[in-house]
Amino acid sequence: MTHRVFLVEDHPITREGIRSLIRSAPDLEVVGEASSGPDAIDLLSAAKPDLVLADIAIDGSDGIELTKQIRSMYPEVKILVVSAYPERVYAERAVRAGAMGYVAKQEASGILLEAIRTVLDGRLHLSDAVRDRVVGSYLSAGAGAESSVGDLTDRELEVFRYFGQGLTTSQVAEAMMLSPKTVETHRVHIKQKLGIETTNEFVQRATLWTAQNEV
């Protein structure tokens, strides 16, 4: 299966490099490009990407605001932020805006491809240091989310934890000896109880909660 990637990057040389890297991967294809936030919004509907790769510093907008817009308009499209800006400053902002990961431009090209595949697989991509800080931030935000998780049944909590470990629906079904349809039903109930609207938000919440509570 080939996954569709849309690039948002206002530096032509950088965009060309990322395009070439993605095209070198047999499981990925570039289906559109934009150099600004408004152009990206105009083109996304026709491009129908699985993932948007967006810089933070772009013409006509910034990557954080663009992430929020895409999340609102196309909730099932996954977003990965790639930037030269410090991860320690912007990664948490990107995740809170709806991104599924953050990669610094100075990272090796292999890290970017790994991050793309991780996010396409429905898992969060962050460095260990940033993941710990994001978890701490969620923990310090208050007990509301935690008490909601406490409302889950034992079975639902187990499903939530498995998804937080990065497992796919079929892998969760195999681990729990359930049908994929039953796992999906549990996920729907969990989303309802936690007030979660999108799959991306579900994965973020599950990943962060599991990182916080795993022994």
From TrEMBL:
One Pfam family from the UniProt entry? Answer: Response_reg
Using the record's annotation, list all stretches that form the Response regulatory domain: 4-120
Sites of the modification 4-aspartylphosphate?
D55
Specify the superkingdom.
Bacteria
> Which ranges carry the HTH luxR-type domain?
145-210
Asked if Phosphoprotein is a keyword of the record, the answer is: yes
Question: Which UniProt keywords are given for this protein, alphabetically ordered?
Answer: DNA-binding, Phosphoprotein
- InterPro entries assigned to the protein according to its UniProt record, in alphabetical order: CheY-like_superfamily (IPR011006), NreC/VraR/RcsB-like_REC (IPR058245), Sig_transdc_resp-reg_C-effctor (IPR016032), Sig_transdc_resp-reg_receiver (IPR001789), Tscrpt_reg_LuxR_C (IPR000792), WalR-like (IPR039420)
CDD domains documented for this protein: LuxR_C_like (cd06170), REC_NarL-like (cd17535)
Q: Name one GO biological process term.
A: phosphorelay signal transduction system
**MF terms per GO, please?**
DNA binding
Protein name listed in UniProt:
DNA-binding response regulator
